[in-house]
Amino acid sequence: MAGHSKWSTIKRKKEKTDAQKAKAFTKITREIIVATKAGGGDQEANFKLRMAIQKAKEVNMPNDNIARAIKRGLGASESEQYEEIIYEGYGPAGVAFFVEALSDNRNRTASEIRYIFSRNGGNLGETGCVSWLFEQKSQIQILKKEAKISEEDLFELAIEAGADDLEQEDEYYVITGAPANLDSIRRKIEEQAPVERAELTYIPQNTVTVTGEDAQTVVRLFEALEEHDDVQNVYANFEIDDEELKTM
């Protein structure tokens, strides 16, 4: 929708701050540990580890930090057990939230996530209450100014690699495709243009435009969830008018 920012665009802008990058180190380290423990330390044979390392490089995590995280994953003790958990709920104006977390204490994390929802005008729901609104997709992001390839040629290259679509979001080209095609799409695109980010994400099937007080409360809830130490990713289906977003 022209003149409106999706939650994904808002998230991208927030991630550029140094504070968000510093926090990302902690979360990506945990992701590397879990991926290594589950599938071993060879990133060519471990897709989840390869994607976690790619995320680490996107935020300029030092190679020594990555190596230490892999080592921790290979030698993970019983005291360092992380569980993958999904939380689902609603915010103001019926906005759906889908939250991915890694926790070493399920009860503590559930209690804290429930409190964040209730404190910010939302409700933590039952498993499955909003997941049907989201579809998992591969997503490749390319900065337009660095692409050095026309949109038409980039689209053809993406389709050839197995992508479904290409859209423009602010200064980015955003390519989407089936989850299984993430690595093949990324490798093909990198032959012609630098990839800013390649990840598996959840895309809402419909969106809710929020305004006024609802918009402010939705953003507060979004930020509070993202800032929780155990939360890895937050997905939501809201849009906010660009002009209103600037005033916030």
3D architecture notes:
The chain contains ten helices and eleven strands. It is α+β, with helices and mostly antiparallel strands. The chain folds into three domains: 4-74, Arc Repressor Mutant, subunit A; 84-127 and 206-247, Alpha-Beta Plaits (2-Layer Sandwich), CATH 3.30.70; 133-204, 2-Layer Sandwich (Alpha-Beta Plaits). Helix 7 (151-161) crosses helix 8 (182-190). The longest helix is centred in the first third of the chain and has 22 residues, at 18-39.
Task: Give the helices and strands, then pairings.
Blueprint: E1 4-6, H1 7-14, H2 18-39, H3 47-58, H4 63-74, E2 83-90, E3 96-103, H5 106-119, E4 123-124, E5 134-143, H6 144-147, H7 151-161, E6 163-169, E7 172-177, H8 182-190, E8 197-204, E9 208-210, H9 212-227, E10 231-236, E11 238-241, H10 242-247
Parallel strand pairs: 9-11
Antiparallel strand pairs: 1-11, 2-3, 2-4, 3-10, 5-7, 5-8, 6-7
Helix pairs in contact: 2-3, 2-4, 7-8
Summarize the structure.
The protein is an alpha+beta fold and 248 residues long. The protein contains ten helices and eleven strands. Helix 2 (18-39) runs antiparallel to helix 3 (47-58) and helix 7 crosses helix 8.
